[in-house]
Amino acid sequence: QVQLMESGGGLVRAGGSRRLSCAASGVVRSIDTMGWYRQAPGKQRELVADIVGNGSANYADSVRGRFTISRDDAKGTLYLQMNRLKPEDTAVYYCNAEGTTVSMDDFRSWGQGTQVTVSS
After folding, report:
1. SS3 for 64?
2. pLDDT at 44 over 80
3. CB proximity list for 87: less than 8 A, separation 6 or greater
4. CB neighbours of residue 91 within 10 Å
5. Are 35 and 67 in contact (CB under 8 A)?
6. Alpha-carbon distance 85 to 67, whole Å?
7. 36: which of 25, 91, 92, 105 is 20 to 30 A away, CA to CA?
8. What does R_g of the chain's alpha carbons equal in angstroms?
9. pLDDT at residue 1 above 80?
10. Residues 6+ apart with CB under 8 A from 99
């Protein structure tokens, strides 16, 4: 129903910035929520930020004030602007979308992930 593909990961120095993108495609009735998750080695996957249809965003305490989630509906793309990066931000970042299919079923889709590595 919705296919997601992340891009923009890479190596960045501590204190630097990076912007992740998530391109969405497919046929769907509606997308209610889109978000970014991350998983560091040996740790559980955690929510980084999400954004709902009205534009309201939520952030993990660890990234609030440094990261900004945004959405471009015309391009079908979700973004995560990451500023003042820290080594502890190193993780695989995953894009997520939740909503309703054309047949009125709930769905939850994931991208393949993109690696972000922040050097000390």
Report:
1. strand
2. yes
3. 14, 118, 119, 120
4. 22
5. no
6. 9
7. 105
8. 14
9. no
10. 2, 28, 29, 30, 31, 32, 33, 106, 107
